[in-house]
């Protein structure tokens, strides 16, 4: 299975933390403040958050079974041809996580992977 990814170093961070038998689906770079990247595996969503005080970085794992909702967020109408920026937001355990992408293709892929997996594991 081919893994979609933007940056080799981000892919390697996700690879280093895999559970036995876990497979990576995609690793996408985020834009804007806060989230560095999102990793999607066959078991969970992994988000790197660069916004912690004291230059600390958090790598947060959210199992699909804990995700209550996933949203595709666009700065343009869903009826328009292309969005210049798009985001995916997930709600899990009373907390919301959001990652913004350049364009909508990667955001749509991330959204669809999460949606499929919460349907499978939820």
Summed up, what is this model?
The chain has 122 residues and is of the alpha+beta class. It is 21% helix and 46% strand. The two termini are 24 Å apart.
Summary keywords:
three-stranded antiparallel beta sheet, about 120 residues, alpha+beta, PH-domain like
Set out the fold topology:
Blueprint: E1 4-5, H1 8-16, E2 24-29, E3 35-41, E4 44-52, E5 56-63, E6 67-74, E7 85-92, E8 95-102, H2 105-121
Parallel strand pairs: 1-2
Antiparallel strand pairs: 2-3, 3-4, 4-5, 6-7, 7-8
Give a description of the structure.
This protein is α+β, with helices and mostly antiparallel strands and 122 residues long. The chain has one domain (4-121): Roll (PH-domain like), CATH 2.30.29.50. The chain contains two helices and eight strands; from the N terminus they run βαβββββββα. The strands form two sheets. A five-stranded mixed beta sheet has the order 1-2-3-4-5, sandwiched between helices. Strands 6-7-8 form a three-stranded antiparallel beta sheet, with helices on one face. A hairpin with a 3-residue loop joins β4 (44-52) and β5 (56-63).
Distance between the termini: 24 Å
Shape annotation:
globular
Q: What is the CATH level 1 assignment?
A: Mainly Beta
Return the CATH architecture: Roll
CATH T-level topology: PH-domain like
- The average pLDDT is 86
Report helical residue fraction.
Answer: 10-25%
Question: Could you give the count of β-strands?
Answer: 8
Multimeric status of the protein: single chain
């Amino acid at each position: 299975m081919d893994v979609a990814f933007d940056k080799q170093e981000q892919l390697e961070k996700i690879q280093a933390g895999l559970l036995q038998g876990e497979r990576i689906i995609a690793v996408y770079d985020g834009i804007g403040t806060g989230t560095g990247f999102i990793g999607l595996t066959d078991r969970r969503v992994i988000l790197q958050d660069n916004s912690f005080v004291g230059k600390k970085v958090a790598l947060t794992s959210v199992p699909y079974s804990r995700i209550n909702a996933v949203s595709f967020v666009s700065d343009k109408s869903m009826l328009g041809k292309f969005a210049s920026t798009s985001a995916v937001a997930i709600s899990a355990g009373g907390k919301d996580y959001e990652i913004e992408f350049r364009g909508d293709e990667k955001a749509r892929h991330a959204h669809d992977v999460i949606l499929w997996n919460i349907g499978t594991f939820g």
